[in-house]
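Section handout, structural biology tutorial.
Before the tutorial, make sure you can parse a SMILES string by hand: atoms, branches in parentheses, ring closures as digits. In the record below the ligand is adenosine-5'-triphosphate, and the chain has 248 residues. In the tutorial you will relate the predicted structure tokens back to the input. Do not try to memorize them.
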Amino acid sequence: MIRLIEVHKSFGPQKVLDGLNLEIERGKTTVIIGRSGGGKSVLLKHVIGLLKPDSGQVLIDGVDITKLNDRELNEIRKKFGMLFQEAALFDSMTVGENVAFPLREHTKMKEDEIRDTVAERLRVVGLKGVETKMPSELSGGMRKRVGLARAIALRPQIVLFDEPTTGLDPVMTEAVNQLIMDTQRSFDLTCVVISHDVQSIFRIGQKIAMLHEGRIIACGTPDVIETSDNPVIRQFLAGSIEGPIKIM
Ligand SMILES: Nc1ncnc2c1ncn2[C@@H]1O[C@H](COP(=O)(O)OP(=O)(O)OP(=O)(O)O)[C@@H](O)[C@H]1O
Ligand SMILES: [Mg+2]
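Predicted structure of the complex:
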């Protein structure tokens, strides 16, 4: 469903993506792992067209989105939902207005349809009836769930999650992981999840891809990754200071 081919991206002298290749399968959850600052968020932004590569292709259902103009890109973006790092809710809007936002932006739904859809999406994420609350009144975990409700508001085919469980306690982490797995199944989504959290990676990933020095150096099922003898993967999973992953 998604293919990145030989993607290069630098910011000034800093090379972040260095001929990256990745294939993401439809209807599965692919987790992308790699060290902090390694380019995971940059990679995700290429998938949704928020960043353009210096060279290379980003194919969504066979369409190279790097060649599209803003209007065409907007059309393609309707296939996507995105849960940004830190949920990124609009603080001046109520929860209900946050979830309604993509519906107002991208559809011609009537107000009562919007209201029903918002209520349904909030119910899916276990937050029935919180429409009138402000984001500041919610806990971190609840904000993530509102972010997820907003990400799935348009019934996207693909949802991108940038570190959905970072900063949550183990119980809330499990709740958010469950929620990702449940929504993936019930909407038959293609999910791409960035995560550092080794437990979450193996809990939700059907495919795991390791980003290292600007490339995907391994991609496989959790079993394959867990038993890999690649020193980069071993170091990452063990959380060891010694190895090919440089700290600075
Ligand atoms: N818009 C930008 N302009 C300049 N440099 C950028 C930009 N976006 C990202 N970078 C740089 O690219 C590198 C990769 O950043 P990125 O946010 O993708 O890392 P990450 O793997 O998501 O890290 P983390 O796990 O900490 O979120 C960083 O060195 C960052 O400073
Ligand atoms: Mg990031």
